[in-house]
Write a structure and sequence with these properties.
With 193 residues, the protein is an alpha/beta fold. The chain has a single domain, classed as TIM Barrel, CATH 3.20.20. Helices cover 23% and strands 22% of the residues. The protein has 5 helices and 8 strands, in the order ββαβαβββαβαβα. The protein has an 8-stranded mixed beta sheet with strand order 1-2-3-4-5-6-7-8. α1 crosses α2.
């Protein structure tokens, strides 16, 4: 769908310069998605992995974030292999709803209520990032936390349009559940494109 060089705005790698590769196509359909234009894969041109990697090589940073849409709809092995050959560290942001593929240095698993994750994501997740849109999302977060590895970093992130409503709930929850941390969309606060 698009590729751009910016600063990661959320999650564990907040503040790191990164080249984002956003793949078109998503079958999850979150009502609060801020990139709904990514849902229809056929709207976006197909590009070779060589051209995608060539774009990343134009910038000084060597962190790539593959996101979507839902990137695991595709076999990411060939793309991640070439990126690795060119010296990149690679992160993925995924709802985990499809079988895992590719070679990653960091896996951000962000489950959604709209579609169950594939079992292959739980052993791979380095970060569990749950978006808080409703009070029921705390129980949803704990349900998934039970399935990831003990070393997996657990983050709660207020959904942008509900942040005023739920930020204080998240703060109190984390104070009482210190195995969780807060993730904020700092790129939105700082207006980073």
């Amino acid at each position: 769908m698009e590729a751009f060089y910016t600063v990661q705005g959320e999650g564990t790698f907040t503040g790191h310069p990164a080249y984002f590769i956003r793949l078109g196509g998503c079958d999850v359909g979150c009502v609060w998605c801020d990139v709904k234009a990514s849902w229809e894969a056929e709207k976006w041109p197909v590009e070779s992995i060589e051209k995608i990697v060539e774009g990343a090589l134009k910038y000084p940073g060597r962190l790539v974030v593959i996101t979507g849409g839902e990137p695991l709809m595709y076999d990411l092995g060939p793309l991640t292999t070439l990126l690795k050959e060119k010296g990149f560290s690679i992160n993925i942001e995924t709802s985990g709803t499809h079988p895992f593929s590719g070679h990653f240095d960091w896996v951000c698993f962000s489950p959604k209520k709209f579609k169950e994750p594939h079992e292959s994501i739980f052993e791979r997740a380095d970060e569990l990032k749950v978006i808080v849109f409703h009070k029921s999302d705390f129980a949803f977060a704990e349900k998934h936390a039970e399935k990831v590895r003990p070393s997996c970093k657990k983050l709660l992130q207020p959904e942008w349009s509900k942040s005023k409503k739920y930020t204080n709930y998240i703060i109190e929850y984390i104070k009482n559940h210190p195995d969780w941390n807060i993730s904020l969309q700092t790129h939105k606060f700082m207006d980073i494109p």
